[in-house]
Amino acid sequence: MTASATKKLYIKTWGCQMNVYDSNRMADILHPLGYRAVDTPDDADMVILNTCHIREKATDKVFSDLGRMRDHKNIRKAKGKKTLIAVAGCVAQAEGDVILERAPYVDMVFGPQAYHELPEMIIRATGERVINTDLGTDSKFDSLPADHAAQDGPTAFLSIQEGCDKFCTFCVVPYTRGAEYSRPAEDILNEAKRLRDRGVVEITLLGQNVNAWHGDGADGLGGLIARIADIDGIARIRYMTSHPRDMDDTLIDAHRDIRQLMPFLHLPVQSGSDEILKTMNRKHTADHYRDIIARVRKARPDIALSSDFIVGFPGETEKHFEETLQLIRDIGFTTSYSFKYSARPGTPAANMQGLIPEKVKDERVQRIQELLFAQHTAFNTACIGQTLDVLMDGYGRGESQLHGRTPYNQAIHITTDRANFGKILPVRITAATATSVSGEIVA
Ligand code: SAH
Ligand code: SF4
Ligand code: F3S
User: Is residue 360 a part of any domain in this protein?
Assistant: First the structure.
C-alpha cells in the first residue's frame, strides 16, 4: 500500500466492551483497504459511530453527534473531498430506519452482526445508501480477518460469546445482539495465540453472558480459561460480563487454581429485592447471589467484587430499595455501576405499572452511590502499603507518566520511564481515591 492510498478512519465507540472489540475488528477489516485509525473526525475519509442503545441517554448522544458529522462532511465536501458516514452497533440495529430518515447524510447503517460485510458495503455505498441489520444465523466470526492488524498495546478484548436469551424485562440486548451464540474453543484459542504474537499479555474474554459460554470440548468457561492459561506468554486472563445463573463450580474453582486468572469478578445483581428481581426476570434471589459470592470468596478470599445496579425499576418501593442497600452492605464491592432505570422501547418493563418519579430515582441513585463510593474508597485505601503487580497498559499526560492495572482491576497512575510500557512490575501502593490508586515501582 503506498502512502497516497492511505485513508483516514475515525471510529467513535459508545457502550460496552463488546462494542470496543467490534470497533477494533472493524479497524482490522478496513486495514487491508488502506484505512488507518485517527483520533479525531477532522479530515477523516470514513467515520463510524459504533453506538449503544442500553439507556435513553446513550441513544440521545448518537443523534447529537450525528449533527456534528454532517458539518464535518459538508466542510470536506467544500474542499472537493468525499466522506463516508456509517452508524454501527446497537442503535443502528434497533433504529436503523429512523437514522436513515432523520440523517440523509448517513451512507451506511449496520448492526452488530453485520459489520464483517464492511468491504462489500463500502462498494455498495458508492451508489446507494446501505442498511444491513440482518441478525443472521451464520457467524460473523468466521468471516473476520485472522490477523489483528490494528492491535496496539499489551491488553486485548476477545469476544467468545455473543447475544442473550435471558430477556431481563428492562433490557434491549436480546433484541439488538440476537440469540446467544458461543464461538468454538479452537477459534478462540487461535485468536488468543495471534494476539499473543502481537505482544498481548492480558486477555479479557467478552460476552453479554460470558459465563454461559458452552463451546465444544472444554468444560464451560472455567475449562476454556484453563486452556488459555496454557498458552505461553498470556500472563493475565479476565472475563466479563457474567450472569449469576451461570456461575458454575468449574469457573469458581478456576479462581482458586489458575494463577493467570485475575482476582476480580464483575457479577451484576441489579437489585437486592426478591420481588424486583422477579419482575426483572433475573430468575434468581438475593440469597442465591449471596451464596455464590460466599463460594467465590472461599475459592479466592481476596477477590475484588463489582456489580451493576438499576435504581427506580417500576414498582420499586423504599423497602425494596433498602434491600438493595442491605445487600451492598453485606457483600462489599470494590467498583460498581448504578443506573437510573430507563424505559426502553419494545421491552416488557416499558409497559409496567408503578413508574418511579424522576425525583425519587435521583434521590435513590445518590444514596446508593454514596454507599458504593465509601466501599470503593475503603478497598483502595486498604491497599496502601501493599505491593501489587501492575501491568503498564497506557500512557499518561506527562512525559514520564504511565497508566496501569492492578490484579484487582484498580486503575493506577505511576511516574516512571515510558520504556516500562507493556511490562508487569511490582508497585508499592502509596495513595488511593474512590476510583484509582497510585504508587511507586519497587526497585
Ligand atoms: N449482560 C449483563 C448486562 C448488560 S447491560 C448482565 O446480565 O448483567 C449493562 C448494564 O446496564 C446492566 O447490568 C444494567 O445494570 C444496565 N441496564 C440495562 N438496561 C437498563 C435500563 N433499561 N435502564 C437502566 N440500566 C440498564
Ligand atoms: Fe440484558 Fe439480562 Fe441479557 Fe444481561 S442477561 S444482556 S441484562 S437481557
Ligand atoms: Fe450497549 Fe449494545 Fe453493549 S446496547 S451495552 S453496546 S450490547
Answer: yes
